TrEMBL record:
It comes from the Eukaryota. GO terms for cellular component: membrane. The chain crosses the membrane at residues 25-51, 75-97, 104-123, 129-152. It is a multi-pass membrane protein. Its main location: membrane. Keywords: Membrane, Transmembrane, Transmembrane helix. It is found in: Membrane. Pfam families: SYS1. The gene is LOC115396663. This is Transmembrane protein 244. It comes from Salarias fasciatus. Signal peptide: none annotated. InterPro entries: Integral_membrane_SYS1-rel.
Length: 164
């Protein structure tokens, strides 16, 4: 009996954060996906206009097949759109989920890779695309976590990093 209560106390100490129900998590994930792809298309269309490209490609979030070259304007638009989308998404994710931005960032990125593979009917093997995706994910996590930390610093459960 005494050993069991000690184990329960340790378990409670390890998980001080509040439990979030799965409906809330799924709703937040859906909202993060909508934010991510809405931003991607908005930023992509602005970049297409800024680079004066003639044809707006609706596959911009999923295009990993464009020849990676500095002289290729379409590649630069795709790259810039990807990085700016990840940068801005992290900021907005922090406003939506308020904690564990890193978790939503990883999940959205994983879903993005799966959706990209389905849309393009091919798994992305271009290392430049993966490098851009990884650096974008890093930006998203850093920005989102910093904003969430400073915005929610007064909340008791966020003040310590023990919930991570």
């Amino acid at each position: 009996q005494k050993n069991n209560s000690k184990s329960t106390a340790n378990h409670e100490m390890a998980f001080k954060g509040q439990a979030v129900d799965s409906k809330t998590v799924l709703f937040n994930l859906l909202l993060c996906l909508v934010i991510f792809y809405s931003l991607f298309y908005m930023i992509g269309s602005v970049c297409f206009g800024a680079f004066r490209l003639k044809h707006f490609d609706g596959l911009i979030p999923f295009d990993f097949k464009t020849e990676p070259a500095e002289s290729n304007s379409k590649y630069l638009v795709n790259l810039l759109s990807l990085e700016l989308t990840y940068f801005c998404s992290g900021l907005l994710f922090a406003a939506v989920v308020r904690r564990r931005v890193w978790d939503y960032a990883f999940t959205v990125t994983l879903l993005h890779v799966m959706i990209t593979s389905l849309v393009m009917l091919e798994f992305p093997t271009v290392w430049q695309w993966w490098l851009a995706l990884g650096s974008g994910l890093f930006l998203m996590i850093c920005n989102g976590q910093l904003i969430a930390y400073f915005a929610c610093q007064s909340e008791q459960t966020y003040a310590s990093f023990s919930i991570y």
